Amino acid sequence: MKGLELSRRYWREVGRPALERDCPQVLESGAAGLAGEGSECFGYDDVISRDHDWGPGFCLWLDRETMARWGREAAAVYARLPPAFLGFRRLRPDPMSAGRVGVLETGAFYRRFFGLDRPPETLAEWRSLPETGLAAATNGAVFEDPSGAFTAFRQALLAYYPEDLRRKKLAAHCALAAQSGQYNYARCRKRGDRVAALLALAQFIDHAQAAVFLLNRRYRPYYKWAQRALEDLPLLGRTVGPLLRGLAGEQEDKTGDIEAVSALLIGELARQGLSGGRADFLLPHAREIQAGIRDPDLRDLHLMAE
Q1: How far is CA 90 from its chain centroid?
Q2: What is the distance between the terminal CA atoms of the chain, rounded to a whole angstrom?
Q3: Residue 61 phi/psi, 5° resolution?
């Protein structure tokens, strides 16, 4: 059983009945679900994942007022829930992963991932947010949210970056992919500098991945899950994904796959109306993407700055 489904059943069959009995005050304004850190929140958990921080559990998100008034009682109910369910046992969290499940104040939950207890309001605020934090804060599922407050916050984040910022990030990643993969990789190989070539290749994979997520309007999770998440994306996931895996393979010269990935990115840029150029080098496309930014301060930033 996947951890997300285990969590949903644990809430429905164990957690909610206990709260209805012992602390019903939190059910009208609280939200229940599972989101945040952990492979189970992304749906990527497997047998290996079960060696730590895995098992029956859920998040109960309360607004500040409800947390102040009833949080202690709700936390006591949660602490009394059985540690085993459907043959799986809840593992005690280590200090590095405390707070993944349990009774959580909504603002504090979001602040943990990107430093704000409200949705971002300006381009500067959006630009300051770590993408991996946005991915973690919006993954998983909300099982129940009668007031809708937690979901409204979540939906504001899932609406994705403002278009000017998406363009800026996309321009930067395309320019950096061009520099590292289409330009420097081959030059490093010609010089016989294998370490530099490998670093250039890794940089290309990183920036190409980032571009694919931006083209899909999806937040990229941290590196451990990025490739797996990319291959599930509707745009370029099934074409770019295998090519990126090939770049991590054993063939000696990766130039062909680098150019194939670049061509697919250029094609999607054209399809979305972000670039109309015909060059097979990503750099001029990056310049065109940035030229379309309306905000002058963002448009005037260095091309390779996110």
Answers
A1: 25
A2: 39
A3: -95, 125
